[in-house]
Amino acid sequence: MECQDHRSFLLESWLELHDVIESHPQVRRLLFDPVTGLPTTPLLFPRIESLLSEHGEISLLCLSVVKYSKIEEIYGWEVFDQVMREVAVALERITGAELRDSDMVAELMISGNAFVVLLAPPRTTAVMVHENLEKLALRVEQRVRDELADVLGPAIAPKFGCYVGSSTARRDDKVRLERLVHRALEDALEDADRREACDAECRKQRLEEIIAAEAVRTLVHPIYRLSDLGIIGYEALSRGPADSEFERPDKLFKIAYDADMVVKLERLCRKRAFETAHDLPKGRLLFINIEPEAVADPELRDIMFTTLLSGGTLTPADVVLEITERTAIADFCTFRATLEYLRTLGFRVAIDDGGAGYGSLQCLAEVHPEWLKIDISLIRGIDTDEVRRSLVASMVAFAEKVGVKLVAEGIERVEQLRALEALGVEYGQGFLFCEPQVPFPDDATVTPAL
User: Fold this and answer.
1) pLDDT at 222 over 60
2) Are the C-beta atoms of 303 and 267 separated by less than 8 Å?
3) What span, in angstroms and rounded, lies between the C-alpha atoms of 335 and 52?
4) pTM of the predicted model, to two decimals?
5) In which domain, by residue range, is 395 found?
């Protein structure tokens, strides 16, 4: 759905400004957000000035869109733009319900992540009642969240949050209008931030409960030899409680990092993965994700060694420790020392998100892994994008030279698979073949005929 036409956001008293905007495209680019089509804050000032003059106060809502993960790196900027457009559409939909027709919606700034709602004067009271303003903010927040959940779907919607803060500013002839407005906007954004902080504390408590109850499960995702689609191993994927915001690992670990609970969560996920691995089919590898911060866990060496001796047929040679790239590695000296010890036990090392940025390249140079996973951002569009093909071709040449095995992540289309085969990438995984499964699936159910 397209956003409401720009003209509907302009009052009749702005007709002269409207004519200037229409005749000067460069002015339009400065005053209207190109993604949502909404006006930006400066276009609210005539209405604000009028409200202050007539009623002595204005009330604002600020809606802040929060990203819970590396959303633009993983899915591209187009997805974030889509979210912003859908928020604008949601605000349009609730106009006439939670919002009144005379309320005005704008972007805080060009290509930002916050929206402003300039509220019309209250109908039944001379001034805005604080409690009523807070209730309105909560209603708008919940309605927009519901709208996003409906249109974005379960894969994208949980990666975003939105928080609505509110503020009221009263006329003060000693303070410039612009300063008064900016102060009100800051207050509303701070209110939104406080709500986000409160939510974060609640999530921390919920995460503590999940860890205490060991409510984490393991799924596996097959890794294929692309030449014949033979399964060579599985990546162990941790999942939180089903149908909750903690189900997906990116959200689970984001909350853990924010709450300084990564090591605790990592220990639980590792325990669950090793429990699953006791039934690993013979001759298959198990890729287990390891957070960079968890490599410094003083218990890691003992845990890895004693777990493998606890029963079953799993040996260190069956396990590839996959270093994720959720955070930067601060101390490569200690990091290398721990990995070298684990290598002496027989484990092998993989680096995740290869080619996603400087951090992964530095990790590659420092760690000398046996496996390298090509980040999904390079796989997306590889069949049509010459730059991506050239980058992956360079990685193939590098891998052959230093003896690293490449795995392409996130293969979703046959065209991507064929492009990777042509480039010489030997291994891959992705939804083209199957979604993550309960361990361990029968080969016939997860190996499609392509």
Assistant:
1) yes
2) yes
3) 60
4) 0.69
5) 216-446
